[in-house]
Request: fold
Amino acid sequence: MDATQNYIQENKQRFLDELFELLRIPSISADPVYVQDMLDTAQKTADFLKEAGADNVEICETAGYPVVYGEKIIDENLPTVLVYGHYDVQPPDPLDLWESGPFEPVIKKTDIHPEGAIFARGSADDKGQFFMHLKAFEAMMSAGELPCNVKFMIEGEEEVGSENLGDFVKNNREKLANDVILISDTSLVAKDVPSLCTGLRGLSYVEVKVKGPDLDLHSGLYGGAVPNPINVLCDMIGQLHDENGKITVKGFYDDVIELSDEERAEMAKVPFDLENYKKSIGIKDIQGEEGYVTMERNSIRPTLDVNGIWGGYIGEGAKTVIPSYAEAKISMRLVPGQDPEKITQLFCEHFESIAPDSVEVTTKPHHGGKGYVLPIDSKGYLAAKKAMTHTFGKEAIPFRSGGSIPIVALFEEELGSKSVLLGFGLDSDVIHSPNENFGVFNFYKGIETIPFFFKYFAEA
Reply:
């Protein structure tokens, strides 16, 4: 891989400039206002794939936003790696908290990244990370060192639940046939710690509504005599956890696969500083399910969190009303063994059962997905570990993430192959939040490491 690495070193600045072109396009899948920007990003991604040397590059239509596909089959007898990523990004709100424009990428030095970090929406999730694969592929192609076949599937709906990707995968099993799937949409445990995510949590997402009177009422004339939907909703939410931090939904834990003491001991080897953790996000203390430490609570245990809540008057000044309704968005992160459809049904039944007779409650399920575990004795994991160990100069370690990539479980069901989560982000990248950033070091380290994964996987 010497020629490949030399090519990377010689083209670093161009790689960064080209990434900035992608980051400037506001490809926000959640907002229909950005339809054309989404299509422009798909086209730009396809153009980069062609320029890198991919064949049969297509912008494949779906019922939603298109999937960008490309491939390079050098020998049918060699193994095939399918690279997955997504070109859509989260909305940038709240805009007033950004220190620079969310779609005006800039490099700034930080305490974690003294060499600079790329500040822009999508820099880490996932444009910067999937772009590493395009540039690593380009480098291997230019150097004549591509050791196995490669296919690319870059979608545009990951941030809204990949609603149409399932049908695309089911309808294109032969096109997408592979020996392993390679994904960079996760993080390292620390910048100087080569680490591989071997597990993801699943997801169940539900919207709830509590309705009281038919219209907003004067709080002086009606307060204390009629149900206040905001008060009721808050009380109901408060009942969803007990005093030990356990979720009270009946049957919620029935299918949870518990980790052994040995597995928990292995997890404990991952470097973690609780004081730095609290300081990094500005909290005074931690909380969570009793009997588990922080790194277990946010990875191997299921959770239930309110992601948004609204109702009544929230404008400037005062308006004394009893609101007609209150609503909330609730997400549940699930662990292996839990089925998202079952959990969603259990939640909806439980939530409706604890409502007082004075209000009407409705629940609206959104997207979900199953959890995922990659065996650490699989060829894909071992190749990734060897690649990271090579480029970092120290042994890579496994860990489990608290995040979700719902489509990963479907890949295994439909394509019969495991996914390797070769991520180079950091938790401090604040993805989904203002001032999202991705270290320049991490971006280049990913491009340097990916060719070695191809090399070691082909050898295996």
Remarks:
- The chain is about 35% helix and 20% strand.
- The CA atoms of residues 84 and 153 lie 5 Å apart.
- The mean pLDDT is 96.
